[in-house]
Amino acid sequence: MDENNNPNEQSIQAFAPRFHALEAEIGKAIIGQKDIVRDVLTCMVAGGNVLLEGLPGLGKTQLVKAVAKATSLSFSRIQFTPDLMPSDVTGTDMLVKRADGSSAFAFQKGPIFANIVLADEINRATPKTQSALLEAMQERTVTAGGLTHTLPAPFFVLATQNPLEMEGTYPLPEAQMDRFMCKLNVSFPTRNELLDILDLTTGAGGVEPNPAADAALLLEMRETARRVPVSRAVAEYAAGMILRTNPQADDAPEFVKKYVRYGASPRGAQAFLAAAKVYALLDGRFNAAFADIDALAPNVLRHRIFLNFDALADGITPEAVIEQVRQSLSAK
C-alpha cells in the first residue's frame, strides 16, 4: 500500500480510546448488551447501516437514542406503521406561498434528513414504504420530483424489527436486507441485568450519555479504518465465504445446496472487509485478519442467507448454514 495513504500514527493510536469512550458513554444508559453496543458502533465507524432484531421491550430503541446522544449527531425517529406512506419518510413537494403572493412547489424534507435515522419497528410498515429507504441507505440521497437531495454526512439507518413470527409484521424486501451491513440479534437480559435495568429505569432518574464524539470525529475514525490494509489471502477468505453461501457455486457445501434458496451478494464481502478493519484497530493491529472475518460472519451473513422450504421444515437456521460454510473453508 502507498505510504502516502497511511493514516498518521496519532489517529491510529487514538482510534481504540475514542471508540471505548463512546462505548462507555452508551453503557451509562444501556445495561448489558456490550457486544451489541460494540457491533453497532463498528458498523457506524465502517459506514454501514444496522438492523436490530429482538422481542419488544429489550431496549433496542433506547440503544439507538443513547448512540445519538453519545455521538452528538442529529437524530430522527420514524415509527413504522401499516398506514405510513413513503412520502412520510422521505418528504414531498408541497405548494408554498411566496412573499409576493404567488405560489410554487417546494420540497419539504422528511424525517430521513438526519445523521441517525431510527426506523423503529421497520417491519410493521408495508413493503412499499420500507422500500422508500432503499436509495437513502445505498446512495445517501433522496430523489423527489426529478431532483436529487443529498442527505447529511455521516448518515446511518439504525432499524429495529420484531421477529417475523409476531403479528402485524411484513418481511423486509431482500434488496433492503442486503443494504444493512449487519443484523444483530438482541438477546433477553440475564437475571442480574434485569435487576439492574429495573434499578436504572424505576429509580429517581436514569443516567444520560454525555457527548463523546461528533460528526467530524466519526468521519475521521472512518477514514482511519478504511486505510487499514487487507492481505490478498484475507480478502480471498471473505470472498470464499460469500461465494459458498450461494447454492449455485461449484464449491458450495452440500448443506448449502440442500437448504439455501440463494445466498449473500458482493455487498456482504464489502461489509466483511469494512468491519474487519475496525475490529483490527480495536485489537491493536493495523491489518485485518482471518479471525476478524470469522467473528463477523454471523452478523454479516445471517440476513443475507435465504432458506428454502426444506430448511424451514427441518428447523435449519442461517447460523447453521454459516457454520457449515466456515467449516468447509477451514477444511480447504
Quickly count the domains.
2
Structural class: alpha/beta
Rg of Cα set: 21 Å
Q: How far is the N terminus from the C terminus?
A: 28 Å
By DSSP, the count of extended strands is 11
Secondary structure tally, helices:
15
**CATH fold category name of the largest domain:** Rossmann fold
> Which oligomeric form is depicted?
single chain
Order of helices and strands: HHEHEHEEEHHEEEHEHHHHEHHEHH
Dominant shape: globular
Quickly give the CATH architecture of the largest domain.
3-Layer(aba) Sandwich
Strand content: 15-25%
Please give a structural write-up.
The two termini are 28 Å apart. The chain has two domains: 1-227, Rossmann fold; 229-332, Orthogonal Bundle (Helicase, Ruva Protein, domain 3), CATH 1.10.8.80. It has a five-stranded parallel β-sheet with strand order 2-5-8-1-9. A two-stranded antiparallel ribbon has the order 3-4. The chain has helices at residues 9-27, 34-46, 60-71, 86-90, 127-130, 134-139, 174-177, 191-202, 215-226, 232-243, 254-259, 266-282, 290-301, 309-314, 318-330; strands at 49-53, 75-79, 91-97, 103-109, 116-120, 141-144, 147-150, 156-161, 180-185, 260-262, 306-307. A hairpin with a 2-residue loop joins strand 6 and strand 7 (147-150). It is built from 15 helices and eleven strands. It is α/β, with parallel strands linked by helices and 332 residues long. The longest helix is centred in the first third of the chain and has 19 residues, at 9-27.
